[in-house]
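To the team - fructose -6-phosphate complex, inputs and output below.
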Amino acid sequence: MCGIIGYVGQRDAYPLLLTGLERVEYRGYDSVGICTTDGTLHLLKEVGRVEQFKNKRLPGKQGIAHSRWATHGGVSQKNAHPFIAHDAFALVHNGIIENYLELKEELIEKGVVFSSDTDSEVILHLVVGHYQHGPDKNLLAAVQQAVKQLQGAYAFAVLNKDAEEIVAARDGCPLLVGIGERENFIASDATAFIEHTQKVVYVDDFEIVRVTKDALELFDHDGAKKNVSIVEVRGNIEVAQKQGHPHFMLKEIMEQPQTIAETMKVELPRIGRPKRILIVACGTASYAGLLGKYILEKFAKIPVVHETASEFRYQEPLFYPDDLVIAITQSGETADTLAAIRLAKKHGMKTLGIINVRESTIAREVDQVIYTRAGPEIGVASTKAFTAQLIVLYKLAFQLGGKKFEGKGIATLIEETLKLEDRIKEIAQKYVHNNHFLYIGRNLFYPLALEGALKLKEISYIHAEAYPAGELKHGPIALISEDMPTIAICPRHETYEKMFSNIQEIKARQGKIIALASTGDERMREISDDIIYLPKADGLLTPLLVAVALQLFAYHLAALRGCDIDKPRNLAKSVTVE
Ligand code: F6R
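Output:
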């Protein structure tokens, strides 16, 4: 969370930093700031989005910038980055410094005056202190000293107004360098500079990088120089544009016939048959994992433990020698998922990542990776990454079960589901004033209920709860009233009759039903208030169609309520703090 970018080169830094900020803004958008230098520091920082800086300018061929997702300290101008000290040093930070209170007290005792409530400002004053007391006024040496005092997670960048360099350091948050012609960038994500260079150096944990317009040097915390390895990243700028759609989320929903078809082509690596699988993930990826558990147990006949990564990392999980730990993650940067993988590796477990972003931190740490081919996902609410994760899990379950997942006609089926958009919008219109929704499903459709409810919550701010339908009578049925409609995921399936009974129980209590059902299901039409008929498909493929229909429902409800769909309040795309 929080996006950082820096530039040092021959061109005006401001426009480059501004475009870079727009690209990393998905990482947080509480406040925004840019600092450039031409021998004097120039600073702009405000609460709100980067677009407010579009018609402004700052001089200088070097600078750093930041878009914030607030952790320590409220959303305010004083807590916006960059932070400045002595009109000479500027710093931007992504992460959390856990021992900042202790460090802050020590600094205050030494006479340092703080201008913000953030943990980040502590780093700046530590660096400046070491710089001023160091023998040779050396920014790199000062950063090397400062990082030894930090506990927590960080990627930060610092500059001095008089030196043509940026020094940046990483532990636990993404940081990379883009190498251009007589210019260099640092950023949280390569999309920040992808149109200027595709040559990238990934900075690893416990590394410090010094970047000038002509050079890049990498060091460890003790000052020893490290080898630099340059990789070419793929990517183009079109994918980072909406291409006529009002929101990235809608564009990404509509891309699913292609992203699913592409992911179907993925060749899985050879994976030995484990005795047990542990799946760790967060949010939407975790719901993909839950469906994965059902599918893996059904087709591969391997027991699966499904864990939320943020819980798993603080439990004392039991590992057995032939376990395989699978991390599912779009970004490959989620702090809790990364910590869960590190814990598994510490216990000597074999790890596999199902990941969308190439060369991301988790991709580089797991033993084996399967990349989903969803392409860059920019909308904060995950859509095409989810369906791509499901495809990989299906393929994996079949491979481990000694079979091949055919997924026949899946791309066409998704296209047909997308054609339901008008019908879904019509239903969304009818329920636009409802503030509570219940989502229910059984078996393969229960994880879809969870995912559907999450989509609705995060982009429309409507309260939604998901339950396995059989659980209703154990409490949640008390919520049922005319004002709390239920989305019932009830295509024909082994548990269809049970779902039918649960729906009747809701109707008997004046609850409204929006049913997602198999085409032609008259019985379901009669009992429900509104029905979305899903295209006729193989039972195993139906969850993918349900996913798409529920994405469209959440999208249109949020759009009708005028919500900021691509940047919902309080959220960020890449969750690199715990
Ligand atoms: C919801 C959403 C989040 C992410 C979660 C994990 O739409 O996007 O719940 O799924 O933060 O992110 P990744 O997959 O990047 O690990």
